[in-house]
């Protein structure tokens, strides 16, 4: 598991309690890597305390807010180098991604898929708590990215994913330039170029109840810039 955090001290304990219950039920050795960007609300300290409680949590403390994509890159490399996992799951720390889907994701990887995307946009996938504006922005971003980047995945911006270790090791992670949310798009493009088998699992995405979204206008501009770059590099 790789979980980036920034100002999630209220959400993280709730998520990890639920996550640890699911991991225990799977009867598999499971390790969690939390990548914290020096959260001013003390999330890093909370993560360390939870690590002592559960015993299977490692915390990467980074200096300053370096971006979501950068956090995933560091988390992936750390997990692959230190733990030799067979499956790596990425998810948000704000409780929008329910850990109950992890067993299904792992089973789908075991059946021969390289990547499983937790999808809000396939049949039986849905979003709870978004208004009309947020839904419109998300739908537009997905449509633009799919068209410009030639992606077949319905939910290209989903941050809830599982990867096989073989697939993830084939990706030149350092070559991925996107530091923010656009990382999700660039990662899918790299995976498609490598011929990885990508499938989608319907999920219910629940908007955060605590804290604030990290998405801002700068992220949106980067998203459009990355999509344009990837379109010309196809």
Query: In terms of structural class, how would the helical and strand content be classed?
Result: alpha/beta
List low-pLDDT spans.
none
Q: What's the number of helices?
A: 8
- Spatial sequence of strands, sheet with the most strands: 4-7-5-8
| CATH class assignment | Alpha Beta
Strand content: 15-25%
Domain count: the total is 1
Query: What is the CATH H-level superfamily?
Result: Spore Coat Polysaccharide Biosynthesis Protein SpsA, Chain A
| Sheet with the most strands, sense and barrel status | 4 strands, mixed
- Shape estimate: globular
H/E series, N to C? EHEHEHEHEEHEHHEEH
Mean pLDDT: 92
Please identify, by name, the CATH architecture.
Answer: Alpha-Beta Complex
Helix content: 40-55%
N- to C-terminal separation? 30 Å
CATH topology, anyone? Spore Coat Polysaccharide Biosynthesis Protein SpsA, Chain A
Please provide the count of β strands: 9
Radius of gyration: 17 Å
In terms of topology, how is this protein built?
Blueprint: E1 2-5, H1 11-25, E2 32-36, H2 43-54, E3 57-61, H3 68-83, E4 87-90, H4 102-110, E5 115-119, E6 126-128, H5 132-149, E7 161-164, H6 165-170, H7 183-193, E8 198-202, E9 204-206, H8 217-232
What does this structure look like?
The protein has 234 residues and is of the alpha/beta class. The protein has a single domain, classed as Spore Coat Polysaccharide Biosynthesis Protein SpsA, Chain A, CATH 3.90.550.10. 44% of the residues lie in helices and 16% in strands. It is built from 8 helices and 9 strands. The chain has a 4-stranded mixed β-sheet with strand order 4-7-5-8, sandwiched between helices. The chain has a 3-stranded parallel β-sheet with strand order 1-2-3, sandwiched between helices.
């Amino acid at each position: 598991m790789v979980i980036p955090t920034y100002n999630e001290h209220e959400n993280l304990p709730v998520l990890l309690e639920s996550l640890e219950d699911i991991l225990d039920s799977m009867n598999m050795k499971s390790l969690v890597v939390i990548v914290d960007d020096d959260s001013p609300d003390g999330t890093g300290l909370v993560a360390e305390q939870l690590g002592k409680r559960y015993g299977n949590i490692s915390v990467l403390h980074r200096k300053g807010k370096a971006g979501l994509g950068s956090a995933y890159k560091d988390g992936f490399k750390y997990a692959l180098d230190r733990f030799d996992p067979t499956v790596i799951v990425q998810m948000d720390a704000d409780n929008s991604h329910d850990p109950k889907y992890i067993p299904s994701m792992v089973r789908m990887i075991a059946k021969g898929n390289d990547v499983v995307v937790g999808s809000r946009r396939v049949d039986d996938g849905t979003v709870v708590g978004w208004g009309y504006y947020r839904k419109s922005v998300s739908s537009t971003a997905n449509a633009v990215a799919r068209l410009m980047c030639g992606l077949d995945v319905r939910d290209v911006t989903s941050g809830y994913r599982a990867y096989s270790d073989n697939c993830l090791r084939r990706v030149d992670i350092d070559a991925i330039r996107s530091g923010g949310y656009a990382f999700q798009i660039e990662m899918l493009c790299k995976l498609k170029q490598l011929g990885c088998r990508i499938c989608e699992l319907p999920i219910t995405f629940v908007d955060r109840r605590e804290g604030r979204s990290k998405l801002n206008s700068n992220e949106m501009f980067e998203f459009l810039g990355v999509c344009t770059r990837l379109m010309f590099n196809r």
